[in-house]
Design a protein that fits this description.
By secondary structure, the chain is an all-alpha fold. Helix content is 64%, strand content 2%. Strands 1-2 form a two-stranded parallel ribbon.
Length: 348
Amino acid sequence: MHQVHRTADNLCTELRRLITEWSLEEKLVAVVTDNAANITAAIKQLQQTDGLRAVKHLPCFAHTLNLIVQPAVQSINNLKTKVKNIVTYFHQSTVAAAKLEELQAQMRPNQGTLKLKNDVVTRWNSTLHMCERMCEVQEPLNAAIAVLMNPVECLTTEEWEALKEIAVVLKPFDAVTTEISAERAVTASKIIMLARGLTTACNKIQPTLKSDPSKQVLAKLLEGMQKRFTAMESNILLARATFLDPRFKKNGFVTDSGYAKVKDSVTAEVSRQLSAAPTDAQPSATPAEHNRAATSVVDVHDLIWGDFIRSTAVAVRNPQASALSLVRQFVEEPHIGLQSTILLYLHF
């Protein structure tokens, strides 16, 4: 996309230009973007364009997770700052880094030596990786700080426990971010399931927490998920994708009404597609029928069987009945395993 001032009007104009240039008007199903106000407004403008009214906006799930986790991580800034100070010191001091490596070799000889990791502002999971690495080398790190005469403030016993619990709390969000970022697998159909799974994971972890910082992080995460995940099943694109995933179907929905709504929606769409297909074409003739037509002016086979063939062909092409039959057949098929992929199911 050309460089433009990123106002909603300019983004909408540029998107419309690209859609026209690539002749995507009849092919565009959804536009996936982050949750920024300017691009969200631009998509709403785009949806008002003739020919693009059916285009849906799908916020990036990984970006939505980022918006949930960032406030939770910021709620423990004091502990995070203390951790960063330790990491920064060992990154900047070659003497300290060498001492940490030496003590790791002495205290955990069979595990290899590890370097401390720093976090990056734009990637929340780098904070998780920083905390996890700190916990991995806790004993050699404490020893190194003591040998170096406490050049940086070490964590207290309570802070170490809090850090370990925070890592446990954030781990599911890291796993989901990785899973949803796949490049060679269908991910939209997993969003509703993953959102529900994260809420379930947090509720399971909650009773195990003892430190106030980890409880604070978890409370912020639950608050963010309540705000951003509530309407997930009502998003028709996500609901259809979940329903049509042979791993989920009905099991992807919490309520029977939500399942019934999307099932009716898919059935109506299948019926519409069938109605749009040509209906006046006659069944193709077999080679034997072609031979009969070539040798006789009167098609005896058609005289005998023609009405029956045409009546059954019309019945099969009844859009509503065919749609109901196709959807029912899909629903009644056994679920495929969670580790299976949709592309394999479709023989791609």
